[in-house]
């Protein structure tokens, strides 16, 4: 973070005091500016009167995501063409809360990090390693070569995600397809496992962001239960 703008005329609050404290700790200059100037730069409908000017997010090389961190096996999320910024933001928020260690997104024909995505993600983009790749199928092949099990999610798959065995305990990448069309054909072929989330209602599928949340926390539960007890 390089600089923080606060709109002139805001009522004093504990939240503003905390923002100023964190900015000082990060050696970011705090500047009070006119509301119109702030809104013109914010590019959002509700800036709430505070704007941080930060350096661009750094991309993480795909191979770096395949390394264990702190003794924890990689838990990756690969998005095969998710195009709605609201969905991407919700996906990133769920993934971060579930302990996903890295997210892979395609550079073209898909949503990438925008102000809308950042706002919906509620801070997750600041904590999540992200790799932006030319193509998802080739990236899945590279992940497999590094020992990562790629699990594609498909509502029509016969195998339940809840029944997949020990393959989920080691390095794993959960692969989600685009809204509507789902996984691309070549991406599907590059997955070691194709699994579904069992459903019991009248509708035939979940929204991709909801499916991501269910699947990520199922994998998190499985991986937590298989981890040795430190005690």
Question: What does this protein structure show overall?
Answer:
With 231 residues, this protein is of the alpha/beta class. The chain folds into two domains: 3-53, no CATH class; 62-226, SPOUT methyltransferase, trefoil knot domain (Alpha/beta knot). Helix content is 33%, strand content 19%. The chain is built from seven helices and nine strands, in the order βαβαββαβαβαββαβα. The strands form two sheets. Strands 6-5-4-8-7-9 form a six-stranded parallel sheet, sandwiched between helices. Strands 2-1-3 form a three-stranded mixed sheet. Helix 3 (85-98) links the parallel strand 4 (75-80) and strand 5 (102-106). Helix 3 packs parallel to helix 4 (115-121) and helix 3 packs parallel to helix 7. The protein is elongated and about 60 Å long. The chain starts with a strand and ends in a 5-residue tail after the last helix. The mean pLDDT is 89.
The CATH top-level class label of the largest domain: Alpha Beta
In the residues, how many domains can be counted?
2
Q: Distance N terminus to C terminus?
A: 39 Å
Structural class computed from helices and strand pairing: alpha/beta
Provide the spatial order of strands within the biggest beta sheet.
Answer: 6-5-4-8-7-9
CATH architecture of the largest domain: 3-Layer(aba) Sandwich
| CATH topology descriptor of the largest domain | Alpha/beta knot
Tell me the helix content. Answer: 25-40%
The pLDDT mean sits at: 89
Order of helices and strands: EHEHEEHEHEHEEHEH
CATH fourth-tier homologous superfamily of the largest domain = SPOUT methyltransferase, trefoil knot domain
Q: From the alpha carbons, calculate the radius of gyration and give it in angstroms.
A: 20 Å
**Beta-strand residue percentage:** 15-25%
